[in-house]
Amino acid sequence: MRAVCFTLLASAAAFQMPATPQTKTTTTTSLQAFGGKKASGFDASTQLGAQAPTGFWDPFGLATDISEEQFMRYRTVEQKHGRIAMLAVIGYCVPAFIGTFGDTYLSFSEKVKFSDIPLGYQAMFKLPTLGVFQILLFIGLLETQFPNVNGDYGTGYFGQFLEEPIKSKKLAVEISNGRLAMLGILGLLVQDVVTGGSPFEVQSTVTSYTAL
Questions:
Q1: FRET label pair with 41: which of 63, 80, 137, 212, CA 20 to 30 Å apart?
Q2: What is the C-alpha to C-alpha distance for residues 124 and 103, in angstroms, rounded to an integer?
């Protein structure tokens, strides 16, 4: 639990409203965020994501002299991982604090109930084989049939196609929340392994100190 708390606290600033991107000679738009180019050439430091609390942070120089196509690829992957991480955090929290479908059968053929599936990574070893296949098939369907179109997969924002500057603002918030969720799910997974399947269980250790 301490690992989870540390991770979330260290990243809490990602939930705040994104600050205005670093001022250059042009204004950042959602087109730039997904590979747009300035008149003087592509500059990753002016794109969405270069926002509070770190600003433009690229310690490994991955964005140095990067092309717009490669940046678009990086941004698409980041968004996808952020969305998966947000769902994963919810997938940890809901069964732990709300519950699942109890004794309802998950698989009638293998007599597996929802209550038989443990929380976290251990669930992978309890799911029926056909269930794992269905999950992989669904992932493959999403990957091949729903390409990312400017971050909204061509479906808009809950069915609405937003205009600027609202679209860029919401995309920036999503990027921040996705980054926080990636750190959060990492903390949950580590705590899950360390505690043997109890990522939310608070464990305290009392250490005795001898006065000098």
A1: 80
A2: 19
Query: What is the value of pTM for the model shown?
Result: 0.68
**DSSP string spanning 153-168?**
TTSTBTTB-PPTTHHH
Comparing CA positions, the residue from 203, 193, 199, 176 lying closest to residue 4 is 199
| Per-residue tens of pLDDT for the chain, all 212 residues | 444 444 444 444 343 444 444 444 344 444 344 444 443 478 888 888 888 888 888 888 888 888 888 998 888 889 889 999 999 999 999 988 998 888 888 888 888 898 888 888 888 888 888 889 999 999 888 888 876 665 566 666 777 777 888 888 888 999 999 999 999 999 999 999 988 888 887 654 445 545 55
Which of 22, 43, 17, 23 minimizes the C-alpha distance to 32? Answer: 43
62-66-70 Cα angle (round to 5): 90
